[in-house]
Write a structure and sequence with these properties.
Layout (H helix, E strand, L loop, with lengths): L1 H18 L22 H15 L19 H6 L14 H13 L7 H26 L23 H18 L12 H21 L9 H16 L13 H9 L9 E5 L23 H6 L19 H4 L6 H5 L46 E5 H15 L4 H6 L1 H7 L7 H6 L3 H6 L8 H14 L6 H7 L4 H4 L6 E2 L3 E3 L9 E4 L13 H4 L3 E4 L4 E3 L5 E5 L20 H6 L10
Parallel strand pairs: 5-6
Antiparallel strand pairs: 1-2, 3-8, 4-5, 7-8
Helix pairs in contact: 1-2, 2-4, 2-5, 4-5, 5-6, 6-7, 7-8, 7-13, 7-19, 8-13, 13-18
């Protein structure tokens, strides 16, 4: 009965937070949960932290708000680069109730009696979630108020201003270190927070903070960048050396990579550190079917990043920027065809090929799309397990941190990047060769990378973009590297040789036609009716155009007037105006 009462109270708390977000920091927690009636045993703590998982633990399956997307009208990044974000128009800043729930437990855990290790474990879970909450806040706003306890309506700090980023980041690191020191190595089947999940989050956060400080001079924190990079490498190394995880290779080649994102369960997968379980029997589903041709496609920039099968850059090919959709997939890194819907892909695993949509760019996302039709039942009714943390990211975090520190060795490359490449039978990276022959395309994308390891850092960034595509990390990567130039550039879709009919599946039968307008069909007039009757038609009046008029890459009308990226302002987001009005101690930063 106690547990049912708690869950009801949490539900009420969530409703009140949604309906009134201006006083969420001051509402007395005792109106929802009486600490005298709860927090008495480790079992109470376990029940309480259950509420953190659904509200605060996500498993992303897209790269919205980054340069990996070609067209995603209405996304925050789309609004930002078209000058559509101001303090008056932006949302956010209304999720502090999540922090309050965590702090309420931490304020009352001293009442708990029982096994000290169990109590410390659940305290570690709470501090993990507080660290995760503040990581997101730092990444969005930089300086933010730090609240280490649940506020009451008489707390004088309720309306304080921002605390310095350095102080908040150190507090996040303290929380993560506590979690690492006290969490169990495994709790259940891998869906719960554990020691290695905390280490992975530590490596992710410290790599973010270390590189952000290194490349963002406006913070004046460059001198402390290495502290975080060293901690990122340390945390990653603890996971790597634990002996508990290995790059998953049980399937053959690309199929092993695919299995990380479309399996019914990830329990027992050697690469998975933490995952989310979606099953009909649990009444929990996901929306992964929406990745394929729903409201976005992937960008030509991302597609160009994948190497050729022989390990050479795609962009080394003469005329690479005029290779059409069918040619794009020839002899490429196998991960490309696991990420982008390739010619001949069938959504129902039959002889009917999927046809990509040029009005979104043509490179429709395949990664995370449930391959088995039986797992796709509708909105929030897809039943594939999703990774939260996996060893692949840990290896990339380690390699990048060591490269930025200047302490990376060939052995490090063998133990990280080359394990990922070996899984999909790609040629291994050679550290000396990477530094000796720098890819000019990568160098033009990341102009602020300098030093003896420049070529290696660029190639690690390539590998990271390819391996982790669509896993929700790209936007933060671009921001921490201070690569806003990539967001200012208008994104492109696939290359179109000429207006008219196109074969998109590789069977020599035209599947689509790109036409100037519904009334101008002259380019397909000579195609027999039996071949064009089922051909989907798209018009250059449908919010896209071709860069050269009648040929070229697909471009988007929204970008005709250009895109804007103001540095350093656009690496951060403004606090909504209603919040700074409510609390006049909250000040905007970096031009907002």
């Amino acid at each position: 009965m106690k547990n049912k009462w708690l869950l009801l109270s949490l539900t009420i708390l969530g409703v009140t937070a949604a309906s009134c977000n201006k006083d969420f920091l001051q509402r007395d927690p005792q109106t929802e949960i009486s600490p005298d009636a709860f927090f008495n045993t480790p079992a109470d703590l376990n029940t309480y932290v259950n509420g953190f998982y659904d509200s605060q633990l996500s498993s992303p399956y897209d790269d919205a708000n980054s340069d990996n997307i070609s067209s995603y009208t209405g996304s925050e990044m789309d609004k930002l680069v078209h000058n559509g974000i101001t303090p008056n128009t932006i949302g956010g800043w209304d999720d502090w109730d999540q922090l309050r729930r965590v702090n309420f437990m931490l304020d009352n855990v001293y009442k708990t009696k029982g096994d000290a290790a169990e109590i410390a474990h659940y305290t570690g879970v709470a501090r993990y979630f507080r660290a995760k909450f503040y990581f997101a806040k730092i990444a969005t706003y930089s300086d933010v108020p730090w609240y280490g306890h649940a506020l009451s309506d008489v707390d004088s700090s309720m309306y304080k201003g921002r605390d310095p980023r350095a102080m908040v980041a150190d507090s996040v690191l303290d929380d993560l270190q506590y979690a690492v020191d006290h969490l169990k190595e495994k709790d259940g089947n891998g869906t719960r927070v554990n020691k290695y999940a905390a280490l992975t989050l530590m490596s992710r956060f410290c790599l973010f903070e270390g590189t952000f400080r290194k490349y963002h001079s406006e913070l004046n924190l460059q001198s402390s960048a290495n502290k975080f990079l060293e901690k990122a490498a340390w945390a990653a190394e603890q996971v790597m050396n634990s002996g508990k995880f290995n790059i998953y290779t049980s399937a053959n080649g690309a199929a092993a990579y695919r299995a990380l994102f479309v399996s019914t369960t990830l329990d027992g997968n050697s690469e998975i550190i933490q995952w989310r379980d979606y099953q009909a029997s649990l009444g929990i589903g996901n929306n992964t079917h929406t990745v394929l041709g729903w409201v976005w496609s992937l960008s030509q920039s991302l597609v160009n990043t994948y190497l050729m099968k022989d390990g050479t850059p795609f962009t080394n090919i003469a005329g690479y920027d005029k290779i059409d959709f069918l040619g794009t997939f020839n002899n490429r890194d196998p991960r490309l065809a696991e990420t982008v819907a390739y010619p001949g892909f069938s959504i129902n695993m039959d002889n009917v090929s999927y046809v990509a949509k040029p009005n979104l760019g043509g490179y429709d996302q395949l990664k995370f799309y449930p391959r088995d039709p039986a797992l796709r039942k509708g909105w929030d009714l897809n039943y594939t397990a999703l990774p939260i943390y996996r060893l692949g990211e840990v290896l990339l975090n380690y390699a990048e941190a060591k490269a930025e520190l200047g302490t990376i060795t060939s052995t490090d490359i063998t133990n990280t990047i080359n394990k990922l490449r070996a899984r999909v039978n790609m040629p291994l990276m050679d550290m000396a060769a990477a530094n000796a022959t720098i890819d000019p395309v990568l160098a033009a994308e990341y102009t602020n990378v300098i030093g003896a390891n420049k070529g290696l850092i660029l190639e690690i960034r390539r590998e990271r973009r390819v391996e982790l595509a669509c896993e929700g990390l790209r936007a933060n990567d671009v921001n921490r590297w201070k690569a806003g130039n990539l967001l200012k550039e208008a994104p492109k879709g696939m290359y179109v040789r000429a207006i008219g009919a196109m074969d998109m599946t590789g069977d020599n039968i035209p599947d689509i036609a790109i036409l100037p307008s519904p009334t101008d069909t002259s380019s397909i007039a000579n195609i027999p009716w039996d071949k064009k009757k089922n051909m989907a038609r798209y018009y250059l009046t449908d919010n896209f155009y071709l860069e050269n008029g009648t040929s070229g890459h697909i471009m988007f009308v929204a970008d005709r007037a250009g895109r804007n990226f103001i540095e350093p302002q656009f690496y951060y987001r403004p606090i909504p105006k209603d919040q700074t009005t409510l609390n006049d101690n909250l000040k905007q930063i970096f031009g907002w």
